[in-house]
């Protein structure tokens, strides 16, 4: 089992920034690729960003590319999501997720491949 706890959400004005963090505990963090997903009210959960075990390979949805940056610290068992130039349409509950994989460099945007999920942290962007 891997336990994931997100933090850093809040209320911010459009154009502002937030930094989300996800702390992992349980199994060896460096055995898992990580991802961030979000779900807005009335909408399906959608992929935001992913990072491979290596930390060198990342992948972003088109809607956040160039504005968000995902990173991880395998020594501290954390994964972060730096969100800049926030827009009202970024408002959602943001989830951290872990995907077991033998590959050091693979990423995935499919939520079905992630086995462990946090409870989420709310991000609200006002216009």
Task: Give the fraction of residues assigned to helices.
Answer: under 10%
The coarse silhouette is globular
Q: In angstroms, what is the radius of gyration?
A: 13 Å
Based on DSSP secondary structure assignment, what is the total number of beta strands? Answer: 11
Mean pLDDT: 96
How far is it from the N-terminal to the C-terminal residue, by CA? 40 Å
Main sheet summary: 7 strands, mixed
Oligomer: single chain
**Structural class by secondary-structure content:** mainly beta
The tally of helices reads: 0
What portion of residues belong to β-strands? Answer: over 45%
Q: Poorly predicted ranges (pLDDT <50, ≥5 residues)? A: none
Could you please describe the fold and organization of this structure?
- The mean pLDDT is 96.
- Helix content is 0%, strand content 51%.
- It is mainly beta and 127 residues long.
- A hairpin with a 6-residue loop joins strand 5 and strand 6 (58-60).
- It is globular.
- The termini are far apart.
- The protein is built from no helices and 11 strands.
- The strands form 2 sheets. Strands 2, 4, 5, 6, 9, 10 and 11 form a 7-stranded mixed sheet that branches. It has a 4-stranded antiparallel sheet with strand order 1-3-8-7, with no helix packed on it.
């Amino acid at each position: 089992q891997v336990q994931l706890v997100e933090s850093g959400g809040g209320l911010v004005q459009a154009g502002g920034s937030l930094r989300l963090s996800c702390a992992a505990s349980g199994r060896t963090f460096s055995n898992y690729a990580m991802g961030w997903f979000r779900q807005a009210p009335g909408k399906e959960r959608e992929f935001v960003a992913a990072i491979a075990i290596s930390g060198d390979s990342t992948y972003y949805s088109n809607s956040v590319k160039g504005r968000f940056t995902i990173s991880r610290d395998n020594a501290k068992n954390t994964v972060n999501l730096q969100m800049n130039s926030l827009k009202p349409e970024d408002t959602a509950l943001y989830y951290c997720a872990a995907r077991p994989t033998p590959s050091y460099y693979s990423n995935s945007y499919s939520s079905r491949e992630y086995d462990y999920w946090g409870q989420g942290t709310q991000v609200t962007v006002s216009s």
